[in-house]
């Protein structure tokens, strides 16, 4: 499968995972379990959620009819703008995780999980209720809407359990 046919949700997940792997390979200092989780989390929050959501917002804003058709929805609906700004908000929240730490990561993970799981529910509802089998309704977006926030929440919980009480994550270097 070429990059041009690989769904963009998968592209951003791969970039996040490869970026984290390279980061871990070149970093100086110990690779403790907490540090490994921290680096995975920052890459997933910034790229897997942040950048991918900003790209999703751009599609809903600048190519609304193409996006609607790819999901199996009617074209010309103003819902695209509303959806775009929800995606943009979560995207900015994710990107800010490169600078913001601590409880900010919790908020970003929770908000993205609410949005993405809600999107997944919508995809499944349309599939079951209206037999919408469009590739961007039951394909990669559905899987990404479940896998990415679930992975982030699991990693965040594991990371928080490894952190010493009262410590904040270090700057990523």
Architecture overview:
There is one protein chain. This protein is an all-alpha fold. The chain has one domain. The chain has 7 helices and no strands. The chain has helices at residues 8-26, 33-62, 64-71, 79-96, 103-130, 135-138, 140-162. Helix 2 (33-62) packs antiparallel against helix 4 and helix 4 (79-96) packs antiparallel against helix 5 (103-130). The chain starts with 7 loop residues before the first helix and ends in an 11-residue tail after the last helix. The model is unreliable at 1-5 (pLDDT under 50).
At a glance:
The chain is an all-alpha fold and 173 residues long. It has helices at 8-26, 33-62, 64-71, 79-96, 103-130, 135-138, 140-162.
List keywords for this structure.
disordered N terminus; 0% strand; 173 residues; mainly alpha
Roughly how much helix do the residues carry, as a percent range?
over 70%
Reported for the largest beta sheet, the result is:
none
β-sheet strand percentage: under 5%
SSE series? HHHHHHH
Secondary structure category: mainly alpha
Number of H/I helices:
7
The chain-level mean pLDDT equals 89
Shape: elongated
User: Which radius of gyration do the C-alpha atoms yield?
Assistant: 17 Å
Domain count: 1
End-to-end distance, in Å? 33 Å
Number of strands: 0
List segments where confidence is low: pLDDT < 50 over at least 5 consecutive residues. 1-5
């Amino acid at each position: 499968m070429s990059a041009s046919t690989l769904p963009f949700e998968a592209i951003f997940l791969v970039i996040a995972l490869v970026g984290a792997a390279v980061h871990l390979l070149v970093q100086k200092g110990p690779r403790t379990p907490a540090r490994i989780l921290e680096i995975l989390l920052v890459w997933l929050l910034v790229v897997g959620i942040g950048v991918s959501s900003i790209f999703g917002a751009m599609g809903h804003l600048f190519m609304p009819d193409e996006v609607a058709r790819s999901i199996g929805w009617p074209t010309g609906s103003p819902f695209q703008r509303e959806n775009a700004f929800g995606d943009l908000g979560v995207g900015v929240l994710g990107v800010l995780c490169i600078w913001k730490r601590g409880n900010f990561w919790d908020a970003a993970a929770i908000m993205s999980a609410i949005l993405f799981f809600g999107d997944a529910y919508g995809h499944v509802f349309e599939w079951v209720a209206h037999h919408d089998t469009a590739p961007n309704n039951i394909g990669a977006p559905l899987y990404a809407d479940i896998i990415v926030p679930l992975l982030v929440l699991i990693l965040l919980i594991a990371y928080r359990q490894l952190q010493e009480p009262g410590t904040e994550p270090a700057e990523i270097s």
